[in-house]
Write a structure and sequence with these properties.
20 strands; mainly beta; four-stranded antiparallel sheet; elongated; five-stranded antiparallel sheet; Methylamine Dehydrogenase, Chain H
């Protein structure tokens, strides 16, 4: 299993899992019963995210359902309608809304594997990929890319902190990056892991990160704490630049004189 999300339908807890065998399975979390198996991806499903626009329970006369996005290792993003009685793929493109059955064209907005997905309160979709970018796909613009977060390595995780207005990414280069959601500008980088960061979650005003290094770490998302962290890094760099090189005390007097002469010649 590569990914899992949970939700409640008619007071029934549901788990949805994505697997390396390219399938998505819907489970009754209380009984462990397998409700539905969804096929559509051709490669392993690595990311799942609830589509917040379809997470409200409809009238009792309707079939309570939710919609879920899935992303795979071949860069495709698909969308599914999940209910207790049945589950099926649904279109992401409005042009396909008149079709009652699939297969539907997937969203393709990356060059390679999708590692993480999340839907924000603006109902846009944020994605993380092995093509070294995180992206925001604008729902109102037919899922056009309106923000690109460039990284030096694979982007393994992405979450949105709505309260602070941040987007947070975890990267294979071991860093946790904090981005301004509105502008897409990098605000701060937290360092501390010594292996790739593989997962993130927001807990109140904190970001929690997990890594292959076997640790779980916690970082502040408060604006004042982020500003302080930036200033500490800046001050540390300035101190390092002000430090003057010292001559190795193990050198003999003659060696020190020769070294000084060489330095004078280089000037």
């Amino acid at each position: 299993m590569k990914a899992v999300v949970s939700l409640a339908l008619c007071n029934t807890d549901i788990l949805i899992s994505g697997s390396a065998d390219a399938s998505i399975i819907v489970w009754n979390a209380e009984t462990g019963a397998k409700l539905h198996v969804l096929k559509g991806h051709n490669r392993g499903v690595q990311a799942l995210a609830l589509d917040l626009i379809h997470c409200e329970t409809p009238d009792e006369s309707q079939d309570p359902h939710a919609h879920v996005f899935s992303g795979d290792s071949s860069r495709e993003i698909r969308r599914w309608r999940i209910s207790l009685s049945s589950s099926k793929e649904v279109p992401t493109d409005k042009a396909e809304q008149n079709l009652s059955t699939g297969p539907f064209q997937p969203l393709v907005r990356h060059e390679t594997s999708i590692y993480a997905l999340c839907c924000d309160t603006d109902l846009d979709l944020w994605t993380a990929s092995a093509d070294k970018t995180g992206k925001c796909l604008n729902r109102d613009e037919a899922w056009a890319v309106d923000t690109v977060l460039e990284h030096p390595d694979f982007v393994r995780a992405i979450v949105v902190d709505e309260l602070g207005g941040w987007v947070v990414t975890g990267c294979r280069d071991e860093e946790v990056r904090i981005w301004e959601k509105g502008s897409g500008q990098l605000f701060h980088t937290y360092s501390g892991h010594f292996e790739e960061v593989t997962g993130l979650c927001v807990v109140r005003d904190q970001i929690v990160s997990v890594s292959i290094d076997g640790t779980v770490r916690q970082w502040s998302l408060k604006k004042e704490d982020l500003e302080r962290a930036k200033e500490e890094i800046k001050a540390g760099k300035e101190r390092k630049m002000d430090q003057k090189p010292t001559i190795d005390s193990t050198l003999t007097e003659e060696e020190e004189r020769e070294l000084a002469e060489l330095m004078d010649e280089s000037d």
